[in-house]
Amino acid sequence: MDLGTHPASERTADARIPARLLLLFWLGDAVLTLAHVYILNGVHGSRPSLGQLLYWVLPGYLVWALSVPAIITLARRFRFEGGGWRHSLPVHLTVSLVIASANMVVLTLFARARSGGGESFGTVLLRYVEMRMSWSIFTYWFFLAFYLALEHAQTAGARKVQASRLEAELANARLAALKIQVQPHFLFNALNSISSLVPDEPRAAQKMISELAELLRLTLAAGAEHDTPLRRELEVLDRYVAIEQVRFGDRLRVDIRVDDDALDAAVPTLLLQPLVENAVLHGIQPSLQGGTVRVTARREDSWLAIEVSDDGVGLGSGYAERAATRVGLVNTRERLRKRFGAEHSFAIGPVEPRGTRVSIRLPCSPKPEHALAAV
What we know:
By secondary structure, the chain is of the alpha+beta class. The chain has 2 domains: 157 residues, no CATH class; 175 residues, Heat Shock Protein 90 (2-Layer Sandwich), CATH 3.30.565. Helices cover 63% and strands 12% of the residues. It contains 10 helices and 7 strands. The chain has a 5-stranded mixed sheet. A two-stranded antiparallel sheet has the order 1-3. A hairpin with a 5-residue loop joins strand 6 and strand 7. Helix 1 runs antiparallel to helix 4. It is rod-shaped and about 120 Å long. The two termini are 60 Å apart.
């Protein structure tokens, strides 16, 4: 049976309602109560001083001060969402009557103490019930509504922050998955190259293993970082190129030209290696005479422009369809889309007289110093 109760764990903002807002409510309520009492006395031809008003009103706030923790506890436990109001409404009605009655008793005691006990307790109590009982009940419900509204606002804000955090974590998870997918793809190709060299060129295979170990060290050093300085990305690329040059010899030439002011720009980890690998496997390797892979990077105002091109066999007709099946290109495009959204560009096109070019433009921002010193 639902008694309208909800565990505090379901309302993440309960403990974060600022106390100053609750205090502000009671200050405002005190001002309204003073005005209310002054008007009631004015109706009966009396014009009490401020001191008299404070003496008549403030004792009732002793009851409210003691009651507020209980009201908040009941507000959290007996709620009005869904069908809970059927059970919560009688509880709050009863409590409001009890607190209002206690308020009337305290006010009566103070009034008789001030007047010296001329009138009977019952007479004074009835007068206060007539004048102030409904106001005290209204105050209870007004505070209850105020508190629940604050709680709702705090909970809605907390849920919004949590939803944003979960969305960011999901995006990071997807980026990590794409990054992980690139690494085995490269590792498989590298190991396949090494195995082909072992029977006939063991020294070359040994050198490739050494370069591969260093490349894996640099890759692991990046850890779970999504971004890395371009200079570190070039270190990884140098190791990869060294591996491929052992395999292809003079058939593979690599020309890397990066402006000095672009070296500290932040780029997604393992951005360049899959692009160069794609150029080598699909551009240079099919060409009998080999070719050159060119990597350039430069700053253009607030943008970083990167190009990876080759003068290999080229894409030919239908290159868009073929590019869509290549793991390195597909993953790089998807990672950039998830990381930068509309704030980037990624284009693949032919190079005259032959070859292929991948052009990327990213927002240019420096990588923090601690990331530069991580290796």
